[in-house]
Design a protein that fits this description.
The complex is a heterodimer of chains A (about 110) and B (about 110).
Chain A: E1 4-7, E2 10-13, E3 19-25, E4 31-38, E5 42-51, E6 54-57, E7 64-70, E8 73-78, E9 87-94, E10 103-104, E11 108-112
Parallel strand pairs in A: 2-11
Antiparallel strand pairs in A: 1-3, 3-8, 4-5, 4-9, 5-6, 7-8, 9-10, 9-11
Chain B: E1 3-5, E2 10-14, E3 19-21, E4 24-26, E5 32-38, E6 44-50, E7 56-58, E8 64-68, E9 73-78, E10 87-94, E11 101-102, E12 106-111
Parallel strand pairs in B: 2-12
Antiparallel strand pairs in B: 1-4, 3-9, 5-6, 5-10, 7-8, 8-9, 10-11, 10-12
Classes of the chains: A mainly beta (about 110), B mainly beta (about 110).
Chain lengths: ~110, ~110
């Protein structure tokens, strides 16, 4: 299995508070992704990174920011959490691009009250 | 814009029966096509992928999929399902350097 960890695995927070989710990989893959999974919507891309300090938006990026200061870590920040951001968040990695196999982390379940 | 449709939200089959999960895509050129599986409480795992060449692709766990350009389809099949195949299945499509788009998923239920 690809070495991908996500932390925390579960989090409950209140509306308006900042939240940071961490994705850590040990595979030295160039690309990293953040998705959210919601019933009836499948997986939707939030942001992705194609290298250290290189990031781009996905289809549902509003309200989220990301940072990648090291190859192995990709952080997702909700600046001011809202109830609509209650979801399961998955990190994924791929070696060299979107057309390559993506390896997924175990997910973070976030509840915003 | 590219899109992928999985028409069936839920499918129920009996253990030992054959399975076909449907996937249709909308894209201009030859896409990259994927099937992923998600077991309860887990992340997604790649079952198989198609980039070019033979249109019948073999994957892990006894699954296969066939790319049909004329029908814009990439249906997933298995000749005989096992109780452990109960999961959610996602079709995904991408092209070139563009992003991968996932379908909304089909949840497979297995009857004993």
């Amino acid at each position: 299995d690809a070495g991908i960890t996500q932390s925390p695995r579960h989090k409950v927070t209140e509306t308006g508070t900042p939240v940071t989710l961490r994705c850590h990989q040990t595979e030295n893959h160039r690309y990293m992704y953040w998705y959210r999974q919601d019933p009836g919507h499948g997986l939707r891309l939030i942001h992705y990174s194609y290298g250290v300090k290189d990031t781009d938006k996905g289809e549902v990026s509003d309200g989220y920011s990301v940072s990648r200061s090291k190859t192995e870590d990709f952080l997702l920040t909700l600046e001011s959490a809202t109830s609509s951001q209650t979801s399961v968040y998955f990190c994924a990695i791929s070696e060299s691009g979107h057309h390559e196999t993506q390896y997924f982390g175990p997910g973070t379940r976030l509840l915003v009250l | 814009a590219q899109s992928v449709t999985q028409p069936d939200i839920h499918i129920t089959v009996s253990e030992g029966a054959s399975l076909e999960l449907r996937c249709n895509y909308s894209y201009g050129a030859t896409p990259y096509l994927f099937w992923y599986v998600q077991s309860p409480g887990q992340g997604l795992q790649l079952l198989l992928k198609y980039f070019s060449g033979d249109t019948l692709v073999q994957g892990i766990k006894g699954f296969e999929a066939e790319f049909k350009r004329s029908q814009s389809s990439f249906n997933l099949r298995k000749p005989s399902v096992h109780w452990s195949d109960a999961a959610e299945y996602f079709c995904a499509v991408g092209e070139g350097d563009d992003k991968i788009i996932f379908g909304k998923g089909t949840r497979l239920h297995i009857l004993p």
